[in-house]
Design a protein that fits this description.
about 270 residues; mainly alpha; two-stranded antiparallel sheet; 2 strands; about 5% strand; globular
Length: about 270
């Protein structure tokens, strides 16, 4: 794998394979701290989104013969949405599990993240009696997470307004600041994410691009550009794990050529403006 061809789509599967292997290499090693298995959930989420992009690169068939539709197309919007999900998942993984400066900071970030997911269930009492038990469990989880948050030193130095926001599940820093801390060029990532948000929210540009691509070749070229960016994200993930966990580093050394590619691509992120 020559570095000058690092972004080539032919490198996608080797990097994705190493990402899966690196993630699996530490399976069973994180049980002492009940927080770390959630890192593995995010790692798997990242790899699954990346695998779905590879599948979409091969095209999607619409099997609706009764409606007179039996054709194949390239789903550009799904690829764009998944590419953004890859970035967001990596940034969350980095922010919660790899950026904390000490255990108190880790506890604050972790419980803030967990609360942000649970708090959407607050106050929506189900009318179906069979759902009351899981609802009550979720409310207890919310109370427990808030108590853990309030016990951290990090929470204690916040202003009253900031404390209220954090306890509502809205206290995490801006994603652009996390991207900068994770080693991405902030301006490029800001524009990249804004463009991909258009596909998530179906703005006018995304709609025209879905139906306006002149040929299958141009659609494939678009998808492979997205794959190139996702390869950078996967490479950042691989290098994070290799630096943190000896077992992950050993897995990378067993695939030295792919790991060298990952290090090269991870370094490209800092070259972006």
């Amino acid at each position: 794998m020559a570095e000058r061809n690092a972004i080539d789509a032919s490198n996608y599967l080797p990097l994705l394979s190493l990402a899966f292997q690196v993630g699996q290499s530490i399976k069973g090693l994180l049980t002492r701290d009940p927080r770390w298995p959630d890192c593995q959930q995010l790692a798997l989420k990242l790899c699954m989104h990346s695998a779905s992009i590879y599948s979409l690169r091969r095209g999607t068939r619409i099997p609706l013969p009764e409606a007179g539709v039996n054709t194949e197309f390239y789903d550009l919007t799904s690829v764009a949405v998944l590419a953004r999900a890859c970035l967001d998942t990596f940034l969350k993984l980095f922010h919660v599990f790899f950026a904390p400066t000490d255990d108190d900071d880790f506890e604050f970030r972790y419980t803030s993240w967990k609360l942000a997911g649970e708090v959407v269930r607050e106050g929506y009492v189900p009318t179906d009696p069979s759902l009351l038990e899981p609802y009550n469990v979720s409310q207890e989880n919310i109370r427990h997470l808030r108590s853990r948050l309030e016990s951290t030193r990090e929470f204690g130095v916040l202003t009253d307004h900031q404390k209220k926001q954090v306890l509502r599940g809205k206290g995490e820093p801006r994603w652009s600041a996390i991207a900068r801390e994770a080693g991405f060029g902030e301006e490029t990532i800001r524009r990249w994410r804004a463009y991909h948000s258009g596909h998530v929210h179906a703005d006018g540009l995304s709609g025209s691009q879905v139906v306006g691509s002149p040929s299958g070749d141009s659609q494939i070229e678009y998808i492979e550009r997205e794959m190139g960016f996702v390869m950078i994200v996967l490479s950042k993930f691989i290098c994070l794990y290799a630096e943190k966990w000896p077992a992950a580093g050993e897995e990378c050394r067993r695939h030295a050529d792919v790991y060298a590619l990952a290090r090269s691509l991870a370094g490209m992120a800092r070259l972006l403006p």
